[in-house]
Design goal:
single chain; 226 residues; alpha+beta; 5-stranded mixed β-sheet; two-stranded antiparallel ribbon; 6 helices; 7 strands; binds adenosine-5'-diphosphate; binds magnesium ion; nucleotide-binding; transmembrane helix; transmembrane
Length: 226
């Protein structure tokens, strides 16, 4: 118990430091992106490094955003939003990457659930989960996103048919900075968990080695009146 508390305090301090640094990085980074785009326009015809540069800048930006969320107490700014709109937006961003990796993403969302949520934070959740699903299928595969609403709760699952997770590793998921990837940072699930908890939701992960993984989010939703 005592150790647990010490660990929590340590993490809070590390989180605050990380967020402070992330905050400082954000402005120069957005200037860098803007000028890279301008220069790309100027160098038309000889611009083959620019997409890579812009992609890497976007990656730094995603890490910085994760760190910002971790270091702050509840930062959610909540409004009424359609879950489907949020997921469809994320899919429009991810689709080109998915196509390149031979990943098909199916969306099965019949009823348009409405949530009181921080739209950007929930977008980040789905980006993190779909990215993990894609990274678990290096040779391609299928991601299925399914949503079911019952009364005032919606259950959204992100399922892949990728490498799966060994049972003893399953318990470690979401632990600070836990990663099994060479180029991973273990921020994705940690941030996802924090955002879902701040939305009074729950996250559950089921997985079978060699078969695939399903991450299920349960979130409060505005009751259907149909
Ligand atoms: P990162 O992706 O940077 O490693 P995450 O917090 O997103 O960090 O994930 C932590 C770990 O959880 C991953 O390294 C991986 O081992 C495991 N994991 C998460 N999602 C999946 C998935 N869909 N399939 C297999 N393993 C997963
Ligand atoms: Mg990840």
């Amino acid at each position: 118990m005592y150790n647990d508390l010490r660990q929590k305090e340590k993490l809070a301090v590390i989180g605050q430091m990380a967020a402070a640094i992330a905050h400082e990085i954000k402005n120069p980074l957005s200037a860098l992106k803007g000028f890279t785009q301008l220069q790309q326009e100027k160098d038309k015809g000889d611009d083959h490094y620019y997409p890579i540069m812009l992609n890497e800048i976007d990656r730094i930006n995603a890490i910085v955003n994760d760190l910002l969320i971790l270091g702050k107490p509840n930062t959610a700014i909540k409004t009424k939003k359609s879950l489907k709109d949020i997921v469809e937006y994320v899919l429009s961003v991810i689709d080109p990457h998915a196509q390149r990796k031979d990943v098909t993403i199916n969306l099965d969302m019949k009823e348009p659930a409405v949530l009181v949520c921080d739209e950007n934070q929930l977008k980040q959740v789905f980006i993190n989960l779909i990215k993990n699903a894609m990274e678990a299928m290096p040779h391609g595969g299928t991601v299925t996103i399914n949503a079911k609403q019952a009364d005032n709760q919606v259950e959204v699952s992100v399922k892949d048919d990728g490498c799966g997770i060994e049972p003893d590793k399953l318990a470690k998921l979401g632990e600070p900075f836990y990663t099994t990837k060479n180029n991973g940072n273990g921020l994705g699930l940690m941030v996802t968990k924090k955002i879902i908890e701040e939305h009074d939701g729950r996250l559950a992960i089921e997985s079978e080695l060699g078969k695939g993984t399903t991450v299920t989010l349960t979130l409060p939703a505005i009751p259907n009146c149909g």
